[in-house]
Structures are given as C-alpha cells and as structure tokens.
Amino acid sequence: MNEQSANNPFLVDSLLHPLAGPIRKLLTRSGRQELNQILIDDEENILQALEAGVEIESVYFAGDEVVSENLRKKLTEGATIHEGTPVGGARPRVVPDSVWRPQM
Questions:
Q1: Angle at 79 between CA 92 and CA 51, to 5 degrees
Q2: What dihedral do alpha carbons 6, 88, 97, 3 form, nearest 10°?
Q3: Comparing 38 with 4, which gets the higher pLDDT?
Q4: From CA 98, how far away is CA 26, in angstroms rounded?
Q5: Tens of pLDDT, residues 59-87
C-alpha cells in the first residue's frame, strides 16, 4: 500500500493492498468457498441482487465508471465503496463489482 492509499483506505491502488488478495481469491471457486463470498459484476446485476434482498458488503469500481447515486442509495447499510486504479499499466475494469456473503 503506498502513501496515497494509506491516506485513503478505500483506494485499492496496488496488488499489495490488503483488499487485493481477497478480491483475487473470489475469482476462483475454491476462493469463494474459502471466503464464503461471491463477486457480482455490473451495476445492473448488483441492483437486481439488492432488489432480491442480497446484502452487499462492498463495491469496487475503476476507470471512467462511477457508482451511480441510485446504487449508492440502495446499498446495504455499512457497505463500503472502493476505487481501484490501474496496476502495471493494465486497463482498469470499468464496471462496478460487489462482494456478497451468502447468509447461512
């Protein structure tokens, strides 16, 4: 984590950021099982999940996209919003993703 993200814990600007590892784990089935979480991509899908009663823990976005006011208003209380920056010149994802923990 560099100085910029140290001043803003909601900015994921490095693969070494503490949130980067869990996000990568969610890309694999075994990681989702281990963390008991899933990744929902695209704001439309996130909104549909919220309408179905899913509790969103956090939202991640990057690039030119922003989290709409509509989504911000509908987010589960306590949900966090994190901005990602390009790493190593990679083009950032341009759709919001969210993390959800299934209720057992």
A1: 95
A2: 10
A3: 38
A4: 11
A5: 888 777 788 999 999 998 899 888 887 65
Transcribe the chain into DSSP letters. --HHHHH-TTEE-STTSTTHHHHHHTTSHHHHHHHT-EEEESHHHHHHHHHTTPPEEEEEEETT----HHHHHHSPTT-EEEEE--STTPPPP-S-EEEE----
Structure tokens at 95: 């759709």
Structural domains in the chain plus CATH codes? 3-100 (3.30.1330.30)
6-60 pLDDT tens trace: 556 677 777 777 777 888 888 889 988 898 888 888 899 999 999 998 888 888 8
